[in-house]
Each structure stands twice: as structure tokens, then as C-alpha cells.
Amino acid sequence: MEVTRRNYKDSLNTVYSAIEEADFLAIDGEFSGISDGPNVSALTNGLDTPEERYTKLKKHSMDFLLFQFGLCTFKYDQTKSKYIIKPFNFYVFPKPFNRTSPDIKFICQSSSIDFLASQGFDFNKVFCNGIPYLNQEEEAQLREQTEERRNQHANGVGTPSYISPSSKGPAHVPEEHKDFINRVIEKVEALFTNSEKTLDLEPCTGFQRKLIYQTLNWKFPKGLHVETIETEKKERYIQVSKVDDEERKRREQQKLEREQEELNDAVGFSRVIHAISKSGKLVVGHNMLLDVMHTIHQFYCPLPEDLQDFKEVTMCVFPRLLDTKLMASTQPFKEMITNTSLAELEKQLKEGPFKSPQVETAEGFHSYDTAQEQLHEAGYDAYITGLCFVSMANYLGSFLTPPKAYISARSKLVEPFFNKLFLMRIIDIPYLNITGPDLQPKRDHVLYVTFPKEWKTSDLYQLFSAFGNIQVSWIDDTSAFVSLSQTDQVQIAMNTSRYAESYRIQTYAEYIQGKQQDKEKLGQTAKTWGDDGWVKSHYTSSTTSGSFGYPRGLRKRSISPVQGEQGTGEAPITDGWSHYSYPDSTGSKKMKTDDISGQANAEAVESKTSEGWLKTADSSDSAGLSPIPDEEEEEEESSEGTNPANDAEGTVTWQQATRKGQKNKKKKSKDSGSKTSLFEVPEVW
Amino acid sequence: MEVTRRNYKDSLNTVYSAIEEADFLAIDGEFSGISDGPNVSALTNGLDTPEERYTKLKKHSMDFLLFQFGLCTFKYDQTKSKYIIKPFNFYVFPKPFNRTSPDIKFICQSSSIDFLASQGFDFNKVFCNGIPYLNQEEEAQLREQTEERRNQHANGVGTPSYISPSSKGPAHVPEEHKDFINRVIEKVEALFTNSEKTLDLEPCTGFQRKLIYQTLNWKFPKGLHVETIETEKKERYIQVSKVDDEERKRREQQKLEREQEELNDAVGFSRVIHAISKSGKLVVGHNMLLDVMHTIHQFYCPLPEDLQDFKEVTMCVFPRLLDTKLMASTQPFKEMITNTSLAELEKQLKEGPFKSPQVETAEGFHSYDTAQEQLHEAGYDAYITGLCFVSMANYLGSFLTPPKAYISARSKLVEPFFNKLFLMRIIDIPYLNITGPDLQPKRDHVLYVTFPKEWKTSDLYQLFSAFGNIQVSWIDDTSAFVSLSQTDQVQIAMNTSRYAESYRIQTYAEYIQGKQQDKEKLGQTAKTWGDDGWVKSHYTSSTTSGSFGYPRGLRKRSISPVQGEQGTGEAPITDGWSHYSYPDSTGSKKMKTDDISGQANAEAVESKTSEGWLKTADSSDSAGLSPIPDEEEEEEESSEGTNPANDAEGTVTWQQATRKGQKNKKKKSKDSGSKTSLFEVPEVW
């Protein structure tokens, strides 16, 4: 279903009930650009820390506009043994709702716009009919303003709502307008003595109207209703009406109701995001970190400085996330799936050993044909993403005894994949762990090298030619990380470089220490983890109480908790999860369970880092980050759509490389610290 | 005529000949936004100096995109006694032409986008079919790259054009690709021994293709042509062909020609601007400063830091400009025209004493109906602007003895309006003088006041209540200019404020001195004028020689002079101006004549400043700059379209106010230093 400003209000209940009844939700966003940084390789160094990556994305990607939001709800129908889906395609645009509303500026990147254009994207729908939105602070401000006005009125200050509180004295009327204003006063005085109910003044300038409002408010604080009316020719004039107290109150009341309605309209699309958030349902996306960041940034609040704060906010807004790109890149899928771009993934999951899920489009919704449809309509991409999730989840059921063909979104089998968002092009950290600390792979085989800006990758290969296979990750024109294949070579490299003049080598540890010192000089101190290694997250109370919004600790500015317009104090989450039994029945405990399994996995990965993840990404990285410009030797056109940081090839090679050492996954899968499985295989398998 | 990427090449000759045959050109641009500054009042203080205004516009407006360019050519047909017009509406978009081309980012302002959307603007045409463009430096770089490649080839370096010069050694082939590359080498070796002419390799990744190119180039420097081919399914594979030397050269030549063609395509819309510039024709716009700035910025070069340099560049690109808003705001029109917004101006110029010009749309062009058409299509706005110019020019003919009904764009009567661009909302400097120094009105009745940020306009009125009528121009939250009605009150104000604690007063001279000192601290020294008070402009040589491009002095980077593709060394300008006799027949002398009259006028204005211009803008300014927010007391919706800095009202009041003291314009018009006329009335009147 296509939703624009035109049918938004009428569609809202359809959207709400689709979310409420769903087993899980799939989402996707389309943006006006990806990166306003100098280039993608600087934005995505293969040895970024999660903090660095978050900071870069926040700095270089958040000024773009999320202007199409795809939502596809999946509800499993037991009797039909198939999913009933409801796809929505929302067009979103920050149309200013009045003259005092924020006038949003956003960046467009011509390559992204051009890509979407080539896919038949309809920009007119966005810019002419996009649904407006407000973030929580803007909404709160607007509500406060309305409230304040209402209170003033109720307290009998006697100023009609259209007079700003600051204008209490007589208006200052410039000399050349005095005649004009005096004539208006005469007319209004005449109105009081004659039998007319209203007086239409002649059209005049905005400044003159302002003077009229101020003057009449001061001269006739009671008994008048003053309103600006626009003619068909867009001329504006003032209508003055004699009103008794009751009539005036009625008009004021009408005005307030109209304002309330306008306020809801202004909050606009954010209400859909609020409903998704409130539902607590599993939200599935493909390579979804930017989608999540943009959604929070645009519809909730500017992103926090700190990665840890971002994780907390994310858990409040989306208590359960699953990234199909990460899932496809993880055991048991990573060996079977050669290309994790959405389009390729979808194709591969149609073939054995996977099965295309049985789905049926709900009545009244556009039915997508996966054999025909173009990608990069957000609603379609969300749909495909959901299909991929279902295929992979069901495949996990084949390991059960007896095997199960249908695995629900609430199954314990998919839990290991919760709240881990794929990190593009980081060699040894596959995901951002939203509910816990991130992996900290050893990087003691990595050197930080600075050199003259004329140097190319080949110069680095030559410099380290004695050390066998190396891997270069460019940072900028004059620095790069060089990963050696063996850690014990690091000291040799350091020693031989001691007297070098043109270049300089530091260990990774020294580099990090230097950065840390720079940071401390800037007065920023690094966050520390709690004793137990877990974030003191506030999501527990927010999920269980059923309200959404930020935990108190995050409310740096006063954001009033927004009441959902459906008026339910109870969150649908209880309903969504209640008929599945967990070791502990509360949502918060379940999350904790996830976290613990995540930690075990983290250790497993950490121990294998330098041999496993690291080597494997070699070719993708040198292809992507090579500074040699060459027109014809292009990377594949990114099938990730607007995203120039193509990761498809990286994954291919990585898969190929890892295959070597781990042919017999199943046999090894119970070894603890196994090199082949990222996640511990649950006992049920 | 609507021109997009689809019909651009076919339309180019039509555009060129329309420009060549025209008497004058009218232009208009539509932008993705106006100001990314905090707010318009901060951007347009009523007492800005021209330098300040230029700096603000450059800083806060140039990141928007000029995405629709309107051009309407006007050619007078003597036999029909009417203008034949050719309107063009160009859609412009910086589509990246290949992977190494600049990926332009631009800002969109939601209010501007929303305004254009409400006018039925077609964003899809811009983003899907906009004509690309390059500025001069980008074009030069691209030409150099092509040239360099060609030379390398000619010098027998022997590297095919698709191999970058940096890759001379054997390619570094990562371990996991060695098998793959070795198999490719075997196949190619087999190709040399068998009878096949070409070999299609299997589709592979971009990185693998890069390795293949590098390897084959190194192993088989001669006898092979290697090319990437894309299948219908967008898969890319490499085709290797055996070629003899001749065949290889032929293919290389084809490739170079294709590149040349692609380069011209990439320069795209800039060629239209080059043609306008080369023609030397009078270019008419309405409130055209931003149009001129954007056009230069987007299609020539980033705007210079310094206003003086900007003026020089402008004269190179547009040697003759005329701003209809400035014309309408100047004697003899300012008293007759109550609203100088384009739409209103057009309406007023249809009524007596003005006459609607007789125009005919050339065959094959869209015929606009001024009674029907919506504004804010750039082509239509350009058309209307041209009409306004013709009406006003013809009106000037009524002062001749005998009166003339038709006044050409080359008439001396319109010269006083040349190269003076309207300055929005500056109280005492009506225009930016492109060909000379700007007016320097005395501001010795102006105070610079700083105060706590709680202060409102009313506080300032109260503070200065003893001084009669004052005028407040807000600078920011905590400072404003206050203009007193009498200069001798300045000292009194200064004395009484000496012991004030909450606020601080400086004279305007002190304020300017302080700013100057700050600037000098930053190492920027103010430009000085030449002894004779005139800019040493370089436009003389560039106009008379008929080439365009920047004067040598401005070429800070190496920009090669672009040769027009029409191949004429002679500029059309000679033709366009030759059958009109001037006191001096060269363009440069004529300009000088303008300048002198401009200087005389400047003095006239200067002497009357505090009584004339200043007072008159009072109401507009306090309306526009008042910091009191009030939803209902709005200014008029700007009829200047996307421009939130509505100036219409200001002009109205100014006109009203000046009318007081100058009822009998014609009688007084011969007094020197007259208070009623901005420009000296030429002797011919």
C-alpha cells in the first residue's frame, strides 16, 4: 500500500492493526544520500573500531533525508500454513506545517539520487505528497506551546490565543501607519454602536495586520474576535466580529481543537514509528544500521555523541532487531551463501537446501512478484528482507529432531541473531552488538604506517615484501593500517623502521593509545563498562511498562512522554510474546539471555580473530580501498542500491577463503572455541 | 521549449541560434533552497555593507542547487513591430558521468521544495532527466586527463588507455586469486595459438577484472585488446581480442572519439551558459543577484572570497546585466510601481501609463499566456521579466521629443540601469554596482547596540523613547543597529549610555572600525580602489577579443580557455552592437560612460541618504526584522517565490513615503542633487 500525505490519515488504522497482529515486521529505508565525507574508503576503514564507525556514520550520513520508509508486516496463518503479508510504502517529507515550524535542510548526493532515478523512483511523490513528521523534541515543544496558550486563556489573562504574551503595551505604530490604524479604530468603534455583527477590513500588508492585532487587543481586550481571512486571490484581510463571552469561548475552543488536530498531523509519520516501537515486535532489516540510525535521528532525537548512548536509545526504540545480512554472514549460512547483497540473497534462498516461504498478500494490498519486481522501492525491499528472514529461520528448523518446516519469529533458534547489526567492511568485527559490549579482536599483528602522500598500495607491498602476505587498509592519503600475517613479525618491522625517514611505523596499540590521549586532551573521557561488562540499560522498564520514549537518564532536554493516540496503557508486546514460553516470561529477562549467549560467542570469535575473519577479507578490502583510480577496472555496481560501499564481493571472497579450513561444519560444531561457527549451536540442534 | 537530458543535444543548435539572433536575453533560476543560515533576518540586515551581504549570500546560499534555468530570447522584428520570443526551460542536474566524476552534494530546504511543489514543479524531470554540467575547472581537468592519455599513447608508451600509468609492474595477485588468474593466462595463451579472434572470460568480480587487466597488460603488452562487456543481466565479463597493430590503433582512436563526445556531454548545460556569456548580449533578470551568483558558482567557478573579485568574474561572464527589480525601484518608475515583486510588476506594467509589449512566440515554442500561467517555472519567469523590461524601456521613450514607442535594448536610455543588481532589504544601498565602487552612505546617525538576549524591539523603542522616531535593524539575539532620525542625537545617546550596565552603545564608525580590526587580525586586508576610483577590470579585453573565460589575473588555478564548439573566433557581440552608434564605439568606453554616470548618481544618493532612502524603509524593516513571533500576524506570503525574504512590502512603503516630498517629479528632474531622482536624467529627456 502506497501511503502519502493524501491518504495518510485514512490509512493509519490499517497500519496500526497490521503492526498489532504481526508476528514480525520488516523495514527498509531509502535516503537522499549515503555519505558526505570525502570518500567511502575514508568512511569505512577495515579496522575501524565500532565507536569510530558510529562516529563517522553519524557525522557523514545523518544530514541526508530518509524519504521513503518501507514496512512489511508478516503474520503467520496456522491454518493456511503460510504468512499473510501487508506491505506499506511510506513517502516521507518534512513539509513545514506553519511559518514557525522548523525549516529542515537536508543534503542530496547526486550519485544516490541518480541511482534512485534509474530505478524509477518517484521524487514528486516524496516532495509533493510526502508525509510530514516531527521528532520527539519538536513534538514536545509544539505541545507545550499549545498547552501554554491554553493555560493562559484558562487563567483569564484575557489575551486571545493569537496575541503573543510579549505584546502587552500599546503597539508602537510608525508615523506613516498612524492614519491607517486610526481609521481602523474608528471603524471598530462604529461596529460596537451599529447592528452589524462583523466588519471586514480592507486587505493590507502583514505588517499592517500585525499593528491591527496589537492595537485592537490593547484597545478592546473583550468583546471582539479578530481573524485573518484569505481570499481566493490569496489576499489577506482582517475580519473583526462582535462576540459575547460565550461565543468567544466557543470560537477559542474550536481553535484549540483545530490546533490539536493540526498538531497530530504535524507529528505525522512519526506516529507509525512510535507504533512499531510500542509493539515491541521483532523488526527485521537488511544491513540495517543506517536504517536504524536514520529512523531514530529523524523521528526520535538527534543521535547521541556516544556509541553507548546510541545503543541505549536504540533498545528503547527497537527492543528487538534482526539484520538478515548479519544472519546470512553467520554460521550455518555463511558457507552456503556466496553473496549477501539483498537481491542475491533472495535468489539463493529460493534454491535448495532453502525453501521459498509460502506467503500470501493480504486483501487490498499490492501483490509483489519477486520474479519481476525491481528492488529499491522501500516497501518491496522490506518484503524481500522478510522473506529472507523466513527462509533462513525455517532452514534452522531442519536441524531439529524431528525437523520442523516452520520456525516462528519467536523461536529460540533465531535469538542468537537478535540485536546484532552488520558492520560493513570491518575485517574482524562482523557486527555492532546493541545489547552488550562489542567484540574487541586482538590487533597485535596490525601496524599503523604514515608516509608521504605520493605512496600507493604497491609502495606498501614493497616496503613489507619480506613479510609475506600483508593486508593494507587505507586511512587517508598519508596513513594506512598494514596487517601482517604473523604477529611475531611486528617487532622485526618496528626494528627495521627505526631509522626510516620517509615513513613511520607504530603498533596498533600505540596508535590507539595516541588517539585516546588526543581524545582526553579534548576533554572527552572514554566510557567505562559496568562491573559485569553489561550496559546498564533502561529498556527493561520501558518495555515492560509498555510506554515508549526515552529512559529518564537520556532525557537531556525535557521531552514529555508521548501518549499513543490509541489510548492503550498496555503495550501490544505482552500479547505478541505471551503464547511462547521462555525460561523467564518477562521480556527483560529474555533480553538478558540473549546477551549472555552473545558474550559467549564474542569470546569464541575473539579467540579466532587473526586466523579466521582477518585473512579472509583481504581481497575485498584491497579492491575496495585501493587508491589507484582506473576507470575501467570498476567494482561491481553495488547491488545494495544507493550504497556505494559495496560489500558483496568482500563477502564472496571471505566465504571462499573460510571454506578452505572448515569443510565439515556440522561435525565440528560442538567444539567450544571452534573456528568454524560464529555462534554456539544451541543444545536443541 | 522544455530541455532535458533527453533532447538536450538535439536542441543545442536551436538554443545557440536563438541567443545569436536575440536583441536581449532574459534569465531566471529556480533553486533547491535560499538560505541555510539561522534565519533570514540574520542573513539580510538592513544595514549590511555590500561586502557583508555578498559574504553572507556566498556562505549561506551557494550549497543549494540551481536546478531549473529559464532563458527567454527577445528579438525585435521591425516589420511586425513586435518582439519574437523563444522561451527555454532547462532542467539541470549534476548526474555523475562516470565513477571518477565529482559526486556533487547539494542542500534542499524544505520550505523551498514545498513551495515549488505547490506550484506544480516537476522534480522527476530534474532528478531523472536533468542535464549534467561541469564548471571550468572540472572541464579543464577532464580535458587534461584525456589529453594526457592521448599523449602517452602517441609517445608509444604502449599502455592501452585503460591501464592507469601507475601500474607498471606485475600485478600483486592475492593468494586466493592465483589459481583463477593462472587459468585466465592459460586461456589467453591458447587464444594466441588457435584460430579464434576473441575469447570471452566468465563473469567475475570487479577486483578479479582489475587483476586480469593488470596481469594481461604486463604479460601481453602487445597484440591484445581487452574490454569489459556488460550482459543484459548487468553481469560484467571480460572479452579478450587478438588484434594486429592497425586494428588496435583503430580501436584506440574510436575510443578517444567516444571519450571526446562523452566529455562534451559531461560539460552539458554549461555550454549554454558559455554561449550566453560569449554573446555579450544584455542579460535581464528580476532581483537577479542570487541567479548571477549561482550561475557563476555552478557553471564557472567557486565564488571568490572577495566582493571585488566577484564583480570582476561577473563582468567576464555577463558583461551586461540589467535587473528589472532595481529598474522598477528607480526613477522614473519607483513612484508609479507600488509592488516590485515580479508578478505584481508584470500586472502593473499592463496598465497605463505603461503598455503591454507586442510579442509573438516563435514557431515551435510553447506560447505562454500571461493571464493564465503560473509563475515559478523558470522559463515563464524569464519571459515575464523580459516583458517587464520592454514595458519599462518603452515607457522611457515617452520622454523623448518626439516620443518613441519602441526603445531597443541598446538604447542609451536604458544604460543607467546596466550592471546594478538589486540588494534586498538594505535600507540605504539600493544596488550592488558591478562595474564600480558601491555607494557608501553616511551612517553617522546609526548606533550599534548590544544588550541581553531577553530584549525585544519594544525594549529598544523604550530605551530610545526620548529620541523620537527610531528604526531597529536586528543583527542577532544580542545586538542591533538603531538608526536615529537626527545625527546630532548620536552624541547625546552616547553620553547617556556611558554608565549603562545592561547594554552598550557604539557609533556605526566605531563598529566598522572594530570589524575592520578583527578582519586584519585574521590576516585579511581590505582591497583598495584604484586612484581614479574604478576597478581595474579586465572585461575590456575579454569582450573585445570575443573569447570568454577568466582574465589572466583571476586564473588562480590552471583553467584552460574553453573553445566554443561552434568554432567562431569572432564573438557575436560585434554584430549585436554594431549598428548602434555610441560616442565611442568600443564596448569598454561605453561601460566607462555608464560608470561615470553611476558615480554622479552615487553622490546624489549619498547626499540625500539620511533623509531619503533611510526613513522610507522604516516600516518594511521593522516588519521584517521584528523578533516577536506571532503566528497570525504574518507577513504576506512572498510573491518572490522561493524567497522568504519578502521585499514587496518594503517597496510599497518606501514608495509611499517618498511620494510625500516629491509630488512633482518632472518639474524637479533637472535640479542637480535632486532628492527625487536616483539617476541623473539624461539630456535627451
From TrEMBL, chains A, B:
Protein name, UniProt field: Poly(A)-specific ribonuclease PARN
Cofactor(s) the protein requires to work: a divalent metal cation
Assigned GO CC terms: cytoplasm; nucleus
Record gene name: parn
Disordered: annotated segments: 145-173, 560-685
Keywords (A to Z) from UniProt: Cytoplasm, Exonuclease, Hydrolase, Metal-binding, Nuclease, Nucleus, RNA-binding
Compositionally biased tracts (Acidic residues): 629-639
Gene3D superfamilies: 3.30.70.330, Ribonuclease H-like superfamily/Ribonuclease H
A Pfam family hit: RNA_bind
Amino acid composition bias (Basic residues), ranges on this chain: 660-669
Domain (R3H) ranges: 178-244
Matches recorded under InterPro entries: CAF1_poly(A)_ribonucleases, Nucleotide-bd_a/b_plait_sf, PARN_R3H, PolyA-riboNase_RNA-binding, R3H_dom, R3H_dom_sf, RBD_domain_sf, RNase_CAF1
Primary site of residence: cytoplasm
Family per record: Belongs to the CAF1 family.
Single GO BP term: nuclear-transcribed mRNA poly(A) tail shortening
GO terms of molecular function: metal ion binding; poly(A)-specific ribonuclease activity; RNA binding
EC nos: 3.1.13.4
Source organism, top-level taxon: Eukaryota
Subcellular location: Cytoplasm; Nucleus
Cross-referenced SUPFAM superfamilies: R3H domain (SSF82708), Ribonuclease H-like (SSF53098), RNA-binding domain, RBD (SSF54928)
Transmembrane segments: none
Reaction equations catalysed: Exonucleolytic cleavage of poly(A) to 5'-AMP
Species whose genome carries this gene: Dicentrarchus labrax (European seabass)
